[in-house]
Amino acid sequence: MQFIKKVYDNIYWVGANDRDLKRFENMFTLPNGVTYNSYIIKDEKNVLMDGSDSSVIRTYLDNVEKALDGEDLDYIIVQHMEPDHCGSIDFILDKYPNCKFVGNQKTIKFFHQFYPNDKYNEDRFLEIKDGDELNIGKRNLKFVFAPMVHWPEVFMTYETTEGLFFSADAFGSFDVIEGHISAKHYIKKQAWVDENRRYYINIVGKQGKMVTNLLKKVSDFEINAILPLHGPIYDDKESIEFILDKYDKWANFKPEVKGVNIVFSSMYGNTELAADILASKLDELGVENIKLYDVSDNDFSYIIADSHKYSNQVFVAMNYNAGLYHKMDALLRELVGTGYQNRHISFIHNYSWGGKSLEQAKEILEKGKHEYVGEDFIINSSMKDDQEKTLENLAKAIKEDLDK
Ligand SMILES: Cc1cc2nc3c(=O)[nH]c(=O)nc-3n(C[C@H](O)[C@H](O)[C@H](O)COP(=O)(O)O)c2cc1C
């Protein structure tokens, strides 16, 4: 049985849902799976836009066959060589011997790195350059290179007749397709938007400059639909504007929400209690958006996504073997790796006998050009009653900062 969806005249989604994958890239938890999107464009020449992961190969090959409906396949356009899309390419090239692999110099190089040498003759490969066009009959495909919008060889494909932008991994999302393929059914759901952000920030986040370059490069194109390699397609004005606005914010590291993301580490609960008291004081001061994370208990990708989302952040840490507790240390380094910058940050640190946790945290965050808010709040083992006023002052400083 096949599962395909017509998305435009003679264009079919032939992808697959994967609910079995526990972690995307073996790092990022997938509570609701992920899709591998792939599209067949039928014209005088039939084109397959990208492949799929090898885990869904049976469904994928059946879908491609169904969409082709007895016709041959002329091209598979490989917008990047990441295995979650390319684990199926040899199956396609073997099944359709007249099909050519379309890629740029690097895509073709990476193909040969991932697959055994000399498996296919050179004439199976068609190398394209930035701005090249491929006419396939009524439709015309223009290639737009987007290096480092995830991988170095990435290019995207603009279909000029109807203004359809095949955007590789950009504009993708975690979560399977639930019946609907159009993003209009998802963009109003906060949980989906949060997953979309978690995908972008953790996967493409640090390449903000390259994303901004891409957005500039395609700003003259009339885009009537964006068709990414994961998640729904954006095929109406509102959804396209919605996601372009999000990408503008995310790529420029602008916070989306005035609020406080508190991340704590604690072994025996004393540091955690200070984080809870601060959150409660923020609430009493009228702060609406407060989020608390235990760094030991979380897939970092959630904390990282919310660190980019919120304007203010409080890192609450204790000393461990004379330095920063290792999970907090790892989180901060990974956060910096996503380009985290221009946030308003405060600190609470706990010392029982001493260490450099605070200095180390500041050193790791240094290159992000953050603004520090309020006095660092220091605990020795546990918070004391006479410290409540000082913590209240930190809460007030954060509230004033939010109100600016
Ligand atoms: C294995 C271990 C190593 C620690 N190392 C330090 C340290 O080097 N310096 C320090 O001031 N406190 C150290 N602590 C104490 C903690 O930082 C913390 O102050 C104490 O656990 C109370 O906070 P909590 O209840 O939030 O865990 C250590 C605790 C443990 C369990």
TrEMBL record:
Gene Ontology molecular-function annotations: electron transfer activity; FMN binding; metal ion binding; oxidoreductase activity, acting on NAD(P)H
Signal peptide: none
Every Flavodoxin-like domain range: 260-404
SMART domains found in the cross-reference section: Lactamase_B
PROSITE patterns: FLAVODOXIN, FLAVODOXIN_LIKE
Matches recorded under InterPro entries: Flavodoxin/NO_synth, Flavodoxin_CS, Flavoprotein-like_sf, Metallo-B-lactamas, ODP_dom, RibonucZ/Hydroxyglut_hydro, Rubredoxin-O_OxRdtase
Family classification: In the N-terminal section; belongs to the zinc metallo-hydrolase group 3 family.
Name this protein carries in UniProt: FprA family A-type flavoprotein
